[in-house]
Design brief:
The protein is mainly α and about 425 residues long. The chain contains 23 helices and no strands.
Amino acid sequence: MNLEQQAQSVAARDRAAEALACGQPAMAEAHITEALRLDPGDADTRVIEARIRLALQQPLMALHALDAATFYDAAAGDRPDIVVLRLEALIAAGRDDAALAVAEQLIPSFPHDIRFHRYAAGICERLGRAREQVIHLTNLVALSPRDRQAGRTLARLLARENPQQAAALITAGHSLADSADQWQAARWSIDAGRYADAEATYRLLLAALPDDAALWIEAADHADRCGAHKLATKRYLKVIDLNGRHRFAALTSMARAAMHAGQFRAAVWWWWKATRLNASDVESWAALVVCGLSIDRPCLTDRAAARLESIASDDERDAALSRAWLHAVSGQIIDGATRPVEPAEEPASPLTWMLERSAAVLSQQSAKRPGWADTLYHTAVCRAALGDFLEAGECVQAALDINPLYKAATTLAARLPKSA
């Protein structure tokens, strides 16, 4: 090859590179073919050919071009740009195992190059190797903390086993964490049992997004699960006031919160309003049946049961009633614990009637024969048994006035309460 051919080859190679940079891989292919015809043994030309083949979705031909470049220039195989190009070609060709092996071999040689960690993490995701992906993403985030994409991916992988670490990772550096990241962190905080952290995050989000009805409902549900009934009610009412497409969901959620708090009459009101928006909602009518039974409203129960039977099959009705009873159980416990305890009425004893009748007969007898101490004494015994100690004291004293030596009367008078 003479110098003229070499110059023409270099010019054709340059035109191919320019065409590829302009997004015209077909034109670039024509130029690189001309360059290779003039000088097939130039390693740089082979590298540009590999880039063009990748742009044309021809990864196997790209690998062939890279092999040729290494054949003509052994040192080219160690260049980072050519190594990355080979990785991209292997991945595009679907040879993920080989690509992962290459990436993991290069990581020790280029420990601070995040590209190889990123490639390795992506390949592990395609191969379903979650644990290895976590390792590579952890190294990537350590090298580039501002890489939010890698941080979010790593957090999602960690969320199932360690939601607390995932929540901390996704919100690391609040200036970089957007509202979606904070919302996800709130959910992971709940999974980790860190309800106070979740509540704090919800408050920040509600302040930033005051018109997001779905967010208000989610925050209200969280407050309801934590037993903060007043806070949950306030948030549900906010959604109802917004009067948007989430109004029905807010009404039903408000009704459930009332059931959880044992406020079944209030729950009836909210469930009834929900049926005005959706008269065919099985859950609402099932809940009205349960609430009616809980507060002993047979007319409400019968009406709701009839409506439920007309719109739902037997299986749907049974499932809806089961779910409604689950919501009502805690409320019934709270309602029973907070309801004033009324003293139990003692069952009437048949002796009470006999004593009253005997006292009446003896009083009549005393009126006819006022001088009989025995009649007065037995009248006092009946009155004392009935708890009428004042009249019993008067009768026994009258008996002692007649017969001061009446021992039984003396003993009864001593046993009667002093107030008598």
